[in-house]
Amino acid sequence: MRIIEATLFALRIPFIEAFAHSIKSRTYSDSIVVRLKASDGTVGYGEAVARPYVTGETVESCLEFMADTLWAAVRQADYSTAPLDLESSLDWLKAIAATLPAGTSDTVVAWNAARTGFELALVDCLLKSQQRSLGELLPPQRSLITYSGVITSSTVESAAKNARRFKQLGISQLKVKVTGENDRDRIAAIREVVGDDLSLRIDGNGVYSVQSAIAACQTLAEFKIDSAEQMISRGNPADLAAVRSASPIPQMADESLITLEDAQALIAAKACQFFNLRISKCGGLAHTIAIAQLAQASGIRLQVGCQVGETAILSAAGRHLAAWLPEVVFAEGSYGTLLLSEDVSRTSIHFGHRGQAKVLTRPGLGVDVKDAVLEKYAHQTINLATASVPGLG
Amino acid sequence: MTIHSLIESQYAAQAKFFEHSSSFQQLESGKAPVEFYDQFIANLCQTHLKSPQILAFLYAVSPPEAAPQIRHNMLEELGLDEAGISHPGLLYQLAAAAGFDETAQAELTRAAQEQLRVMCTDPLMFGTIKELGLSILLEVTCFEWMLSRLSSRIGKALETHRQLSPNHLEWFYHHSEVDIRHAEEGLLSVAHYVDYYEIDPSELEAILDITFRENIFIKRYFGAIALATETQMMEPMA
User: Fold this and answer.
1) Predicted structure pTM score
2) Nearest Cβ partner for B125 among A12, A164, A352
3) What is the DSSP string of A320-337?
């Protein structure tokens, strides 16, 4: 089977409330949705979230790479040569990913968001054409996924208010964005609101130095923090290892973990106890699974994370991954219309009370995407069946 | 602060933000194109066509002290009370006057039904029907509170700038009258509900906060993009 048409939708879906961390404040989703059409008429959807401070990709460069490099490869590939075999589902995913060129760039660590957009669209399309669910390839180990709430960087009062909301919704795990300012007061206020039973973790988005990260962890440890994510910026794994060895809080790598080589280096340096796997950051399902398998063989614990502002498409892929992996300590994402003004799927897949959500069983990734919503929120639409240069449409 | 004043202050804040929004001012200014008014009419119809079903749900969960009033509102909405004016009928009358033909009216019905389907398929965020019921009751009574104060002005704006006759705008003028009573009764219903289900103040505050995270009027009547522009979440889309 061949892919005969691709459309890229660069979206701007407003958030209900601003989402801020130490590096960036966001008020809308800037996801790119990839729609592919196969020769048998089946349509599949994927999603990419470009983050300059993570992989180096911007929305513009991502669109350009998709149009010039990925589409050129995908339109040439024959996907009937990779027949779906449930016994070797990981090989099938790897074969799909192998049709997507890695590309090179001086400014981009890896074209992971762009490749994720196409990989997910291919997986969705090819599985839908056979009426198969991704859950058949990645059989779930659990029927319910429990998602965490996230409290963005804000005032102490606002953080406490958000904590009250999450408590009312029965959320049992919270991640708090920390910035180096007022961290102790904010965490203390949140802990006071939610009580001792709720799991708290922190995320610095790389804003601390090695010394200040250690100091922050030592200060905040009294509030029973289960992990500290990416306290220092991406760089030498030995620096993260230094934080780990001096910190009373387990460390989690996020922006430091983009490629399989990053994972190997972090493991070799004993840099952290947790990996945060994010599909769009790690280059799609096949690459993320490879990192997860390496981590689990090395005793690294896993969080299946998300991209702020992701739509139901990436959330669905994350749901399948979180359900399939043997051990997942924390899961994030599936916020849907809890954050977005409107989501792209016909039926909402956001988590419900207690942060819980069921596994998805419908064909492909398991979501029915509404083209009308894509068209409504797209600020740029590129039809690659008729044009190969971004900016048209 | 009493429950009554706590809730009313939230309603007032929602209504004030709506009243001062650029969308509402555009509606009243007469400078907006016809399409703006017609989209507003479509959104308003979709929002309120599902009122009988929502009131039926509220009737099912209402405490004994509030049940007769909510039952009366539901029957009134359906035109089954002493006045005999079907509110969905008034909305279709409005739509027809604005040029919505049978196909367009059927689309309004379908869209309202779809919104009900979304409400039913959306994963429940609250742990009990008690909390969900309170959130819906707050939203419904907040609409009544706002309509008792602004629906005449909206009707007048459509009369003046969309050239619709007062006969076709009865939904607005009717609501400005009946919702003055509904608004007060609504506040009382919420107080009864909170008391009956033993909802503590911090729980009420959290549910109010969750329910009114967004401006419900701008979102329903003018859409998500208008609300995002109003709250500086997004630049207007080209």
Assistant:
1) 0.93
2) A352
3) HHHHHSS--SEE----GG
